[in-house]
Amino acid sequence: MSAYLITGISGFVAGHYLEYLAKNKPGARIFGIDERPSDFSFLEEGYRKGIKLYSFSLMDVPSVEALLEEAKPDYIVHLASYSSVASSWQNPALCFVNNTNIFLNIAESVRKLAAKSRILSVGSSEEYGIVRKEDTPLKEDAKLDPASPYAVARVSQELLSEVYARGYNTHIVRTRSFNHIGPRQRENFAVSGFARQIIEAKRGRRQEITCGDIGITRDFIDVRDVVRAYDLLLEKGESGQVYNVCSGKGYTLSRILEMLQEEAGIGFPVQKDPLLMRPVDNPFIVGSLEKLNKAVSFEPEYGIKDSLRSVLDYWEKAL
After folding, report:
1. In sequence order, what are the beta bridge partners of 172?
2. What is the DSSP code (8-state) at residue 252?
3. pLDDT tens column, 170-188
4. Predicted confidence band at 165 (pLDDT cuts at 50, 70, 90)?
5. Sign of CA pseudo-dihedral 120, 29, 42, 80
6. In this model, does residue 132 exceed pLDDT 80?
7. SS3 label, residue 113
8. How far apart, in whole angstroms, are the C-alpha atoms of residue 220 and residue 63?
9. What is the rounded end-to-end Cα distance, in angstroms, of the chain?
10. Which of 124, 120, 226 has the alpha carbon at shortest distance from 173?
């Protein structure tokens, strides 16, 4: 039976990937690593008891090597990251060192141990930087022009992936993942934060919705579609290649906020907060999923309203 090693297993995407594996590959052996405590209460008790958890820093190379020798994973899903663009402006050094070096430690350990693991290196649409609307939807051969510390770190990780795939024949498939949304996402991400505020307002706990720049356009894809794409790429993606994981559709944050309020059946005034504005932000970014579709026959299953409804439902229960 296949073995999976999931880094950042306590995170938002990892939780949904575990749900996907539980449903579609229930016999898989799961090894997970995260420095943060894990809450898998959304999984059946019997399944979560079968997950072998480890807590150490991926900067600790001997521990990484020891885990690889123990688990002998067929697949490594590298989800551990410093994932907030906004936070990367406050702590750029931590973001860069974390996102670049922890991936390098995994790739080098796989090479050193001559492991046969297939690695998924998750990148970001932020790597494209500031683009012109007429140049979208973005294809994978578009110029990379990172415009934030987070994006620079992701480009560095992607280049390291290419070096190991070409130079050492390490099986690494790369993604540039666009904005994903869904239940259990932290509120410091825009859509989840909007949904939480709307539920709080609905319950009389606030009188307005605060936001940053809601004029920007983003390509949103449901996290449940994201993890399905990741699993398909692990199995069928070509080593050394990079694939956009996106919906191919763009929405302004203002429209997302409107749809959330429509779904919730309420309307509250919106107030911009200067503290939520970024020094530099891409006004418009939408991806092409043509290459992904051609490689693994992928099309999103969740529409934007399905995703927004699930986020609202999550906060209804969580609050």
Report:
1. 119
2. E
3. 999 999 999 999 999 999 8
4. very high
5. negative
6. yes
7. coil
8. 36
9. 39
10. 120
Determine the average pLDDT of the residues in 188-207: 95
Domains delineated in the chain: 3-182+222-246+287-300 (3.40.50.720)
CA-CA-CA-CA torsion sign (125, 129, 135, 139): negative
pLDDT at 97 over 90: no
CA nearest to 283, candidates 128, 66, 135, 130: 130
Relative to beta strand 217-222, strand 209-211 is unpaired
| Average pLDDT rounded to a whole number, residues 198-212 | 95
Please tell me the chain's helix, strand, coil percentages from 3-state DSSP, rounded to the nearest 5: 45, 20, 35
Listed as own residue / partner, the contacts of 196-203 with beta carbons closer than 8 Å and 24 or more positions apart are 196/315, 196/319, 198/260, 198/261, 198/264, 198/266, 198/268, 198/312, 198/315, 199/264, 199/312, 199/315, 199/316, 199/319, 200/319, 201/266, 201/268, 202/264, 202/266, 203/319
Cα separation, 235 vs 229, whole angstroms: 10
pLDDT level of residue 1 (50, 70, 90 thresholds): confident
State both tokens at 106. Answer: 């995994």
237 vs 148: which has the higher pLDDT? 237
Q: Are 80 and 143 in contact (CB under 8 A)?
A: no
Edge-first strand order for the sheet with 217-222 is 179-181, 217-222, 250-252
With 0-12 CB in 10 A as exposed, 13-18 as middle and 19+ as buried, what is 275?
exposed
Whole-angstrom Cα distance, residue 143 to residue 176? 13
Per-residue pLDDT at 273 exceeds 90: no
Mean pLDDT check: name the lowest of 60-64, 84-88, 259-263: 84-88
Q: Which residue has the higher pLDDT, 123 or 279?
A: 123
Average pLDDT on 31-56 reads 95
> Residue 98 has which token pair?
């974390």
